[in-house]
Amino acid sequence: MSINLLEMKNVVIEAEIDGEWRPIVNGLSLALEKGEIVGLIGESGAGKSTLGLAALGYTKPGCRIVSGSIKFDGLELTTLPEKQLRNLRGNRVSYVAQSAAAAFNPAHRLLEQFLESPVQHGKMNRTEAKAKGRSLYRQLDLPDPDSIGERFPHQVSGGQLQRAMTAMAMGCEPEIVVFDEPTTALDVTTQIEVLAAIKEAVRARGVSAIYITHDLAVVAQLADRIMVLRYGNLVEEGDARRLLAHPTEDYTKRLLSVRSLREDKTLQQVESQILAVDNVVARYPSATEYVLEDISIGVEQGKTVAVVGESGSGKSTLARVITGLLPPQSGSVTFKGESLSAALGDRSKDALRSIQMIYQMPDIALNPRQRVREIIGRPLEFYLAMTGQKKMDRTVELLEQIELPESFVDRFPNQLSGGEKQRICIARALAAEPDLIICDEVTSALDQLVAEGILELLQSLQNRLQLSYLFITHDLATVKAIADDIVVMYKGRIVEQGGKDQILAPPHEPYTELLLSSVPEMDPDWLDQLMDRRAQGLAPTPDKVN
Fold it and tell me: At 354, is the secondary structure helix, strand, or coil?
């Protein structure tokens, strides 16, 4: 008979929203056996992270557990004194956050931060803890495991920091680890390395885990059992293999179908080049090394060119050069047959209007003090001299184009969901009546279903308005859905470029093959098989790509 290490029964959690307490977890139950991994899946607002934190007897400020039972190894966490809870957290039950950068203290070295938990909990002395940390760094495949702990958080990559945080969570040999979307912020190649490291570490120690994500293909690689959540309710639950092969609920089927987003492109009759980047070389003012070298690309009217590559490949820098935010050292940018001034301040208003940009993080891109009518209205007034009722009417039309009601004109950004904020960013770009829109990782901060809606909207707008897109992303699933042409970048250079069918069909350049092989599939055996192929030299690895 199996023994449940964790039992959560009929848990109700409320959050204070607009001065009222409202349920965000509605009577959920979760059982976790020793050595078992349960995946929590669902879009933003499903209650995944709230339920995962409750497994530690914890709620975020502004939330409270109002009823139900949470038992860890027979201990009732809802009534356990705070001192005893502190003795459990980070010791027998630990947590790995989504953003490692926010979780680490930037003023302290990695190993010093690792030591804190095992030493404070009396598990080992500093010397023993240092040896433990280095051992975990080695197991999690961190480079230079004996010395990397002497670095500060800003001196390692995002993927390395995520693994260092996993090591920190496992320092006290916990019985349960809660992983809260630990790979969401990582590019596709780094994600695979981190997933493989987590899986190996969990397996080696027989740790129980709750793995939280919005990506079923990711959770498929780790989970024994999957719970699908929506709006704080359980949609369905079952063995991972069975649920992935035979989902019963429509919502789960939608989550499974997102990765097969159908391309719905209207063929354009006119094929004229609207943007040409020729032999661009660029570096940042304080840098000695070039960020871009010999970059040449073209974008045709009504077409989408996807620029793909991992973080640091130069994708966003290319966007800065095209928009005039970073003057190149050499080379040129031509738009609609006319050479663009290198610096933003030297460009005409019409040139500024014709090229618009949609940014990765809508929370940062939108002024929190402005209503939607002001956000969309500003480019209407600046570029097109619209005022008064004419400006208001056009604002409403733009809201209709992005499939939001007129009532949104008086909302502030904090009254919008992540997907709604990104739609407002799209409307703001459309307000200038541009010919080219640069989309810089516009779906990376969104859950899958919301991202699908944004991609479908962008495609619909392109079909109707003959817009051209330069689509910067590291998500190959997105590329397959929206691109006409693909440019693959690596370390500031173009590895290869061409039509989508050409680039996605074998044979591939080694780096392109690495990107394509790193896209998780809806198969629980996929990650193990990939790592086996890499070990045998049958699939490319990051360290073998030049």
Answer: helix
| Predicted model pTM | 0.82
Q: How many percent of the chain have pLDDT more than 90?
A: 64
d(CA 119, CA 127): 10
Unique residue bearing structure tokens 């003023």: 107
In this prediction, residue 271 has a pLDDT band, given cuts at 50, 70 and 90, of: low
Structure tokens at 190: 């780094």
- Residue 80 — φ and ψ, nearest 5°? -70, 135
H/E run at residue 281: strand 273-282
Tokens 């077409």, residue located: 303
Distance CA 320, CA 331 (A): 14
User: What pLDDT, in 10s, does the model give residues 471-526?
Assistant: 998 778 788 888 999 999 999 999 999 999 999 888 888 899 998 888 888 899 99
Write the CA distances from 299 to 484, 486, 487, integer angstroms: 10, 10, 11
Contact between 314 and 291 under an 8 Å Cβ cutoff? The reply is yes
Residue 292's DSSP bridge partners are 282
| CATH 3.30.420.10 for the 273-505 domain, yes or no | no
Phi, psi of 356 (to 5 degrees): -115, 165
Domain 4-108+171-259 sits in CATH at 3.40.50.300
| Domain residue ranges of the chain, discontinuous segments joined by + | 4-108+171-259, 273-505
Q: Which two tokens stand for residue 222?
A: 């780790």
Whether the Cβ atoms of residue 434 and residue 355 lie closer than 8 Å to each other = yes
- The reply to whether domains 4-108+171-259 and 273-505 share a CATH topology is yes
Sign of the torsion formed by the C-alpha atoms of 441, 444, 446 and 450: positive
Dihedral Cα 445, 447, 451, 452, nearest 10 deg: 160
